[in-house]
């Protein structure tokens, strides 16, 4: 356990040092949360019709009257997934391109802990993005978030196993296939379509609803909307939280298994340095 924590700390420290040295990410931190949900908000406003009758139907289906709040909560979860794909999911591939992965690989540590270090850093960065997003949405989009900080943090923590598992599986596949961009576009496209980021999943065909329940983010988004917009308690959304955790741990297990096989494959083939 001590070795694991030391590895995670060392990798996290390296990532923080790079982040402080190259500060262009601050621009995206401020602008991205505002721009991303805007196209969905304008689309919802346009599709609601001149008399806004579409918004009444939306409220009847979702039980939520604040359609902007509904969209921005989905946008926040999507940003976490997007950060996971680009940062955590491509972590090993970036180290490979920099020529530092082999040095990390021969260290007397568990290789999966190297990936976990990148994952923990990604979680902290995601938390920063969520905090800034909530401030901007409250001030600029005039969203009145219900609940309290304790509940919001719990909802974020519930998503972590799924995010780490999804990212670990993705990072392993990227290291094997050695192609990040196409894989990122495909993975986040699946999340955007099936997890109901900007629409309720009940409007999808039944077979698509079944697929949406494979992703832990679907349950996390629904729980977050109920707590942060309808002022529900964590106990009220306990079923969504439970399924989010169960599916999240399954994803984490899948990610660990995939990493084991990819690690074994690159060791057998000696392909760690290949591009």
From TrEMBL:
Q: What is this protein called?
A: ABC-2 type transport system permease protein
Q: What is the lineage of its organism?
A: Bacteria, Bacillati, Bacillota, Clostridia, Eubacteriales
* Primary residence: membrane
Its Gene Ontology molecular function terms? Answer: ABC-type transporter activity
Write down the membrane topology.
Answer: Multi-pass membrane protein
Specify the species. Clostridium fallax
Family annotation (Pfam families): ABC2_membrane_3 (PF12698)
Q: Does the keyword Transmembrane apply?
A: yes
Q: Which UniProt keywords apply?
A: Membrane, Transmembrane, Transmembrane helix
Q: Where are the transmembrane segments?
A: 25-47, 67-92, 112-132, 152-177, 189-208, 240-262
- Top-level taxon of the source organism: Bacteria
Task: Report domain ABC transmembrane type-2 positions.
Answer: 28-262
């Amino acid at each position: 356990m001590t070795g694991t924590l030391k590895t995670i700390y060392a990798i996290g420290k390296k990532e923080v040092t790079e982040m402080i040295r190259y500060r262009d990410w601050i621009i995206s931190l401020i602008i991205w949360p505002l721009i991303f949900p805007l196209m969905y908000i304008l689309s919802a406003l346009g599709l609601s019709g001149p008399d806004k009758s579409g918004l009444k139907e939306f409220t009847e289906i979702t039980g939520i009257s604040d359609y902007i709040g509904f969209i921005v909560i989905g946008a926040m979860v999507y940003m976490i997934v997007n950060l996971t794909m680009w940062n955590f999911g491509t972590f090993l591939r970036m180290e490979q391109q920099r020529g530092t992965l082999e040095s990390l690989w021969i260290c007397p540590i568990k290789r999966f802990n190297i990936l976990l270090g990148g994952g923990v850093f990604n979680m902290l960065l995601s938390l920063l993005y969520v905090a800034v997003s909530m401030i901007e949405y409250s001030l600029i989009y005039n969203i009145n978030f219900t609940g309290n900080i304790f509940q919001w943090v719990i909802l974020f923590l519930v998503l972590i196993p799924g995010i780490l598992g999804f990212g670990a599986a993705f990072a392993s596949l990227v290291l094997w296939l050695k192609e990040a961009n196409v894989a990122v576009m495909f993975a986040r496209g699946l999340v955007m379509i099936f997890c109901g980021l900007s629409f309720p999943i009940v409007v999808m065909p039944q077979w698509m609803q079944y697929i949406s329940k494979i992703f832990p983010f679907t349950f996390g988004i629904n729980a977050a909307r109920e707590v942060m917009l309808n002022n529900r308690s964590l106990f009220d959304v306990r079923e969504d939280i439970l399924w989010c955790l169960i599916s999240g741990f399954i994803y984490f297990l899948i990610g660990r298994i995939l990493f084991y096989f990819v690690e074994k494959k690159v060791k057998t083939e000696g392909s760690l340095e290949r591009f």
